[in-house]
Amino acid sequence: MFLAPINPVDLAIRRPIHFLPNFPRTRRQQGVAGSCSAGPARVQASAPARKGVVVLPGLGNNKKDYDAIAADLEEQGLVVNVAEVTRIDWLRNAAGLVDINYWKGTLAPRPTVDWYLKKVETSIAAVKERTADGSPITLLAHSAGGWLARVFLLGYGTADIDRLITIGSPHLPPPEAPFVIDQTRGILKHVEDNCPGNFHQEVDYVTIAGKFLKGAKLGDRTASNAQKIAGAGYRQVCGDAEAWGDGIVPLASAHLKGARQITLEGVYHSPVGAVHVLEDGQPGRQWYGSRKVLKSWIGFVTCPRSELKTATVKVEDVLDQVAG
C-alpha cells in the first residue's frame, strides 16, 4: 500500500474475467455496522451550486486514471480538480527508507508524504479559484488517498473542507500477527492513533467499500487463483485471507468508526483494470467510479450536510444498475 504499487489481482483477472469464481452475492448493498447508520445509496438531493471536489489518487495511480470520473462529476455541476500526481511521483515514498523508524515499523507519515500533501493543497487552491468564497469542498479520496487525506486534514486543517469521502481506502493498521507485515511501516497506526475515525467533527466522513471478491488461503484447492492472490493481499491488510473485499482492500479495513459507511456489491478496487463492457455486451468489472456505479453514491457528494445526516436513502441493487 505504500512503496510497491503493484496490483497482482488485476494481473490475475484482467483478461479472463469469466473465470472468476461464482461466489455468492447478496442482492442488496450492505451497510457495514458502525456508530452511524449505514446504507447503500442514492440520496435524493439536489447539488449545491458550484460545489468543489478534489480527487485524491490512490497508490500507483496518476491524474489521468481519474479523467472519466472527473468528467462525470463535472456534468453534475461540480467544480472538480484531480491532484497532479504521476506514477513516478510515488517513488518519492522511498525517502522513508532512510528513516530508522521505517525499519522498526514505527514510521510517521511526515515528512515522507509531504510531496503528496502539497499537491492536495495546490488542488484545493485551484478549486477555490473557480468557486465562490466559502463554497464547500469535498475531498474524494481513492485507496491510499483516503489515509493521506486524513493526514492532510490533521496537518493542514479543515478550512473550506465539508466532507471526506473515501472509496476503497485501507484505513486501519493491520493486526500484530505472524507473517503479517504493515506495508505502510507504521503510518496507518500513526494515523489511527492521532486522528481516529471521524476525528474532525466539522467534517462529514463517508467511507465506501466494494464487496467484489472473497479471498482464500493459498492452500485452498477449491479456490481460484484470483481468490488466493486477493487473500494474500487481504491478509497483509487486515489479517484475514478469507475476508471479502474489492480485490485489493478488505471490507474490514475500508470503513471508519463514526463515518457513514456504504458497502457496494460487485464493485472492484481500481480504474486500472476495470472493464466497463465485455465483448459480448455484458457488464464487465466495474470500479467505484464507473458511471453506473457512481450514480448509486453520488448523492453523498452533492447533498448538503443536513441531508447527509438525515436523508432517506433509497436501497438499490448495484448489480442491476450495472446490468441496466
Automatic annotation (TrEMBL):
Gene3D superfamilies linked to this entry: alpha/beta hydrolase
Top-level taxon of the source organism: Eukaryota
Protein name: AB hydrolase-1 domain-containing protein
